[in-house]
Write a structure and sequence with these properties.
It is built from eleven helices and twelve strands. The chain has two domains: about 1-100 and about 240-345, 3-Layer(aba) Sandwich (Isopropylmalate Dehydrogenase), CATH 3.40.718.10; about 105-115 and about 125-240, 3-Layer(aba) Sandwich (Isopropylmalate Dehydrogenase), CATH 3.40.718. By secondary structure, the protein is α/β, with parallel strands linked by helices. It has helices spanning about 15-30, 40-45, 55-65, 80-90, 145-160, 180-190, 205-215, 225-240, 275-290, 295-310, 325-340, and strands at about 5-10, 30-35, 65-70, 95-100, 115-120, 130, 135-140, 165-170, 200-205, 220-225, 245-250, 255-260.
């Protein structure tokens, strides 16, 4: 039976990189029935709708899985982030962001391999703010719960155990935020005792930023709260080549949304020059979630071969390959590797 997946192309460059990702997925031969392209964000508003129509949420609830392009989030005003709203509406509590060095891409570090687990529904991102014009004071509430903390920390440990990774680093600011960050740290210490085979360490967030830009190879799995995770995951992407090449997944107990984590880049929309790698790699994560490990391995192998040879690069990586051509080149590699598999399946 075909997998049913909701497709949300997104804004700006979203439709272009989505088309490239669909070409690559088609080449795997995995049967996927794409549910009607659902509009959200600016595309939905321009069509006279809401930023996040109820039908989009209901569609994902029905089919369980979605592939989503980037959606514009206004800065300083306008509508609430569609990404945040979607995560909260579907209780997608685990944001999973792998960042590892790709062959052929020169960066300051060549052996980075870390996975960042960010709590996705709590913290400052609950959006409870107020402003008193008389006093000129703005306030925001950061909510951290025992339930929310336990499940993201346990998710990180289970991932490390299942994928034979040796260490989990919990990032906090409990020296100052003694109640919120303190709760997260305390629960991390308790849960770590259940996984004696996995090394556990505690790192204060400001120190973590310094360590990641001086010695990122020493990190494996990193788990933290929402705001810290948002910042650190982008930092991790910068270590391996930028947001244009790192994937992202939002996982809950019932639903999963796979997305490119970069912005919608409206300044280059329609120019066929955006890098679709992030969404293609997110599609790989989606295939694994669907149990299609063989196809996911073929996609990963093909993408690595493309980068290793260096013949096709989009503008952000110093090349001139158009978005659609890059997708087609990766798709061609996938088709060949599917026909002649010679690698061990990874999970």
């Amino acid at each position: 039976m075909a997998h049913k997946v909701v497709l949300i192309p997104g804004d700006g460059i979203g439709p272009e990189i989505t088309e490239a990702a669909l070409d690559v997925l088609a080449a795997t031969g995995v049967p996927i029935t794409w549910v009607l392209e659902e509009e959200a964000g600016m595309r939905s508003i321009e069509a006279g709708g809401e930023p996040l129509p109820e039908k989009v949420i209901n569609s994902i609830k029905t089919h369980k899985v979605a592939l989503k392009g980037p959606i514009t989030t206004p800065v300083g005003g306008g509508f609430k982030s569609v990404n945040v709203s979607l995560r909260q509406a579907l209780d997608l509590y685990a944001n999973v962001r792998p960042s590892y060095s790709l062959p052929g891409i020169k960066t300051a570090f060549q052996h980075v391999d870390m996975v960042l687990f960010r709590e996705n529904t709590e913290g400052l991102y609950i959006g409870e703010e107020k402003y008193d014009a008389e006093t000129g004071v703005a306030e925001a509430i950061a909510r951290v719960t025992k339930k929310g903390s336990e499940r993201i920390i346990r998710y990180a440990f289970e991932y490390a155990k299942f994928n034979e990774r040796g260490k989990v680093s919990l990032v906090h600011k409990a020296n100052i935020l003694k109640k919120t960050s303190g709760l997260f740290l305390e629960l991390g210490r308790e849960i770590a005792k259940e996984y004696p085979e996995i090394r556990f360490e505690e790192v204060i967030v400001d120190n973590m930023c310094m360590q990641m830009v001086t010695n990122p190879e020493r990190y494996d799995c990193i788990v933290t709260t929402n705001l810290f995770g948002d910042i650190l995951s982008d930092l991790a992407a910068g270590l391996v080549g930028g947001l244009g090449i790192v994937p992202g997944a939002n996982i809950g107990r019932e639903y999963a949304v796979f997305e490119s984590v970069h912005g919608s880049a409206p300044d280059i929309a329609g120019q066929n020059k955006a890098n679709p790698t992030a969404l293609i790699r997110s599609a790989e994560m989606m295939l694994r979630h669907l149990g299609e490990h063989f196809a996911a391995d073929a996609l990963r192998k093909s993408l690595f071969e493309i980068f290793r040879r260096g013949e096709f690069r989009t503008a952000d990586l110093g090349g001139s390959t158009p978005t659609n051509e890059f997708g087609k080149r990766v798709a061609e590699k996938v088709a060949k590797n599917i026909a002649k598999p010679r690698w061990r399946t990874q999970v």
